[in-house]
Amino acid sequence: MPPRMPIPAPGEMSGDGGVRRQFASEPTTLQFPVEQAVAPRPAAKSSAASAEVALGPTGRPMPVLPDPRPLTEHGGARVISMCNQKGGVGKTTTTINLGAALAEFGRKVLLVDFDPQGSLSVGLGLNPHEMDSTVYNLLMDRQTTIDDVVVPSGVPGMDLLPSNIDLSAAEVQLVHEVAREQTLQRVLAPAIERYDVILIDCQPSLGLLTVNALTASDGVIIPLECEYFALRGVALLKQTIDKVQERLNPNLEVDGVLGTMYDGRTLHGREVLERLVQAWGDSVFHTVIRRTVKFSDSTVAGEPITSYASSSSGAEAYRQLAKEVALRCPDV
Ligand SMILES: Nc1ncnc2c1ncn2[C@@H]1O[C@H](COP(=O)(O)OP(=O)(O)O)[C@@H](O)[C@H]1O
Ligand SMILES: [Mg+2]
């Protein structure tokens, strides 16, 4: 019997304060026995009515997720950070694939690699040793503009501001800057009018770079691996978000909590999802990303799963997440 995951005290981590869109019909806590709550959604679309009451993997009724509305003009980007100080939870994978799925829906997307490990850049096929300019230059050198740094991602409609290990120096150097927390916000400002969505892939820490990302953002998405102890440390992340909200960026909202690497065949995985919903309520996305090796394969191939394995369940999951993000965030 694995250890039970500690459940945070009520109020400590309610996580619903920043969410703009609630689904009124949904319970905030599970009201079903576990087995019933995690019963797989029937695949057959017998009628629209039965589809509406089907329970999703999070144990709540699965809402109908329409395709995002077509856009006739671009700009006014929503900036969203992928944030969790734990590594290996799916931040980079979500940045690449949510971005690619939103681009498929006609959004102009800019990805920002804000992790000195540069996994986002490598995951899109770039060589870290062959970058002329990176986000580091954009932050530290006033002569460098976004146009000097931006590169195509290989996905139509999606661009990338790449990074490599140079960015680790910025964390130290920024400490001496005036308005050090607002540096990324300042340099990204010209991109807002050109893109519909800007996704920032944060590093696994709550240091100055992550505070910069949160200060520059309208929303934050928190990927959480569906594993025991996944919730550990999330209270600290919530505190950091609250502090940034209070002191630097009152507009910052939690756009959602995303369960990743989910294995629906195990009771373990289902229990973790259940607890996620108990802790974060309707902040938890109905969409859950299942565990599949296709994600590692697509990273090796240097492209998103939406193009590497376009009809795979992983690609479909990120398309569904894109619809859910667009539904929650009308400015996407
Ligand atoms: N849903 C998933 N199923 C299986 N492997 C995954 C999944 N999501 C991510 N991975 C793999 O897990 C590793 C860590 O993911 P990554 O997105 O880099 O996490 P982070 O950016 O939070 O450190 C990578 O090798 C990635 O390919
Ligand atoms: Mg990463």
From TrEMBL:
Annotated region described as Disordered, given as residue ranges: 1-20
Membrane-spanning residues: none
Pfam families from the UniProt entry: AAA_31
Gene3D superfamilies recorded: P-loop containing nucleotide triphosphate hydrolases
Domain AAA: from-to ranges: 78-254
Domain of life of the organism encoding this protein: Bacteria
InterPro entries recorded: AAA_dom, DNA_Partitioning_ATPase, P-loop_NTPase
Family: Belongs to the ParA family.
Role of this protein: May play a role in septum formation.
Family matches, as PANTHER family: COBYRINIC ACID AC-DIAMIDE SYNTHASE, P-LOOP CONTAINING NUCLEOSIDE TRIPHOSPHATE HYDROLASE
UniProt protein name: ParA family protein
Species annotation: Nocardioides faecalis
